[in-house]
Amino acid sequence: MKSTDVVLCEARPLGFLQRFYLVEIVKGLVVTLRHFLGNLFFRKYTVTVEWPEVKREYSDRMRGRHVILTKEDGSPRCVACYMCETACPAECIYIEAEEDPTSTVEWEKKPKVFTIDLLRCVFCGFCVDACPKEAIIMTRLHEMAFASREEAVIGLDTLLVTGPVEKLDLGYRPYYGKSSPPIRLPIPVKAAPPAEG
Q: Would the pTM of this model clear 0.90, i.e. be above it?
C-alpha cells in the first residue's frame, strides 16, 4: 500500500463546554420537550393508534389465527394427510388420524386429534401452503390472550368453523383474488380429442 492512499484526519480539540457535553444534552432535551409538548397539545408527532377504540387496518394477507374449514355436511375438510404438520418449521401442529366411517372412498381419513400450539407457532403460513384440500387457512384475527399455556393449545373444537366462509375475516390463504371453489370429487376430466385417421 502506498502512503499516498492513506489520509490522516486530525480531530479538532473539544472546547470547554463540549468536554462536559452540556450543549449536546440541552439540544437533545429541547428535541424531547418539543415532541412531548407537540403530542400533548396538538398530537402533531404521534403515531400511536388508540387501541381498542381504533383498530388498525391490516393487509388481506395478514397471517392470524388458524381455522379449519368444513364441508357442506359439517365434517372437517381436513383428511389428516400430515402435510401441514410436516411443513411446520416450529413443529406446533399435532395430528392423529382415524378412518372416516362416513366416507364413500376406501381408506379415507379424518383427524381424530388436531392441535396447534399458538405459543410455538411463528405464523409463517407454511401449513396453509402445504394443505392440498384448502382445509386450513389463516384469519386476520391476531388478538389472542392466554392465562395459561394450556389455553394456547387449541384443538378441533376451536379450529372448526361452520357456516359461510364469506363471513369470516379471512387472511392468508394460497389463492388470492376470487376464492377458488373447494375441490370436488370426482375431479372433472377433459375428454380426449377424437383420433384422426
A: no
